[in-house]
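Exam revision sheet. Question 4 asks you to relate a sequence to its structure. Input first:
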Amino acid sequence: MKILFVHQNFPGQFLHLAPALAARGHEVLALTDAGNERPSPVPTFRYRSPEPRPDPAVTRFATTYAQMTDRAHRAARAALVLRDSHGFHPDVVYGHGGWGETLFLNDVWPDARLLVYAELYYAAHGLDVGFDPEFASTEPERAFSVIARQGHQALMMAQADAALSPTEFQADTFPACFRDKITIIHDGIDTARVAPDPHARAVLPSGVAFGPGDELLTFVSRNLEPYRGYHSFMRALPDVLRARPQAQAVIVGGDDVSYGARPGGGQSWKEIFLDEVRDRIDPARVHFTGRVPYATFVSLMQCARAHCYLSVPFVLSWSMLEAMSAGALVVGSRTPPVEELITDGVNGRLVNFFDTAELAETLVDALARPLEHRHLRAAGRAHIVENYDLQSLCLPRAVDFVEGRI
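Answer key, structure tokens:
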């Protein structure tokens, strides 16, 4: 088979799948944005996509649609070069559903089977938007703009022959008319690599080091922001450190914004919520690392006595599953994406996303009684191994999905 992956940040969710299909003898290519500097595991073609500047006075609620169709147009022009100059006619086109890139590819290759990675369907109510009243907008136009952002998603799903979502929660965000197209297959966790290690040693960029016996609390997010509960964690942290005088916290993440609105005043969310508690925490015990290499992240999860993962109802982070796989005790938010994997008191702990007192109390308990929580850590890892293992479960199923067997 000839297979084309389309993803502005390739390889993204296709990191393992694309080379696995190539190893099976398929001709695998990728199409991605020219500005994407990530290494690619397969031959890659690029389209140029300068930031479009739609006139808000003209597009109003169609601004996102204008941006996505512009990206789709540029991807389609590159696809035409692939077809006409290189003679490439894929049997399967598999694209991410978030950025509109596949919108015109049915017209370029009408005989190809079109697959869509259905990560999340925007919603004005019931998901991330408005979940946290501290940051919710009361303007009706906010809801209108979110609804308008569904346009390119609905068209991509209507065109798709089949779609894939990584979790039940994420699949269920899509309208009922599309839900039957969606197969649930997680991207997978390399549980052999991300596994408990009694000899692990986590070394921070500052040179501070930790081992599995240390009283280490971790928090990880691509960027430190409210969508991932950074504010709730920081507000709970002074009470945790006061109750556990030997505990140290490592906070991994950048200063930018991945999801939601940017703060005003020129500050980052990181600084805003650090400033709230700065006079109540010992800076020698709280380590902000920025983003770290993956190997450092894994070693931190292997050494963590407790790992805090909070999220609004939104896309579930790989890091939570990796923490469970590494044997960390995850204290997570009682929100649907987290509840799909963690049952409180069975394979982790769950707390109210907004209740910082409950969060602090639960983190203190996790730090204070590591021996009593061994069964939770073991059950958390077992759940990932049995349901989300990359090599034995998720990758073979994803291969079957692309090859048309499911």
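Marking note for examiners. The first helix runs from residue 17 to 23.
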